[in-house]
Specification:
single chain; about 60 residues; alpha+beta; 1 helix; DUF397 domain-containing protein
């Protein structure tokens, strides 16, 4: 099975150009991995879980 990993088109911008994650569709779930270390494995999360996390990040509700 060939997995298509995608990185944001904005990942090469600014001071954080190297701080990126890649996403892939995996059997109805989403794979998330570090773009700098793609061979170190990935996390698999549900679409709703990822959607909630992104909302929390955009709303600056996490101490990141």
């Amino acid at each position: 099975m060939n997995i298509e990993w995608r990185k944001s088109s904005r990942s090469g911008m600014g001071d954080t150009a190297g701080d990126c994650v890649e996403l892939a569709s995996l059997d109805g779930k989403i794979g998330v991995r570090d773009s700098k270390n793609p061979h170190n494995g990935h996390l698999t999360v549900g679409r709703d879980t990822l959607r909630h996390l992104v909302r929390q990040i955009k709303a600056d509700k996490l101490n990141l």
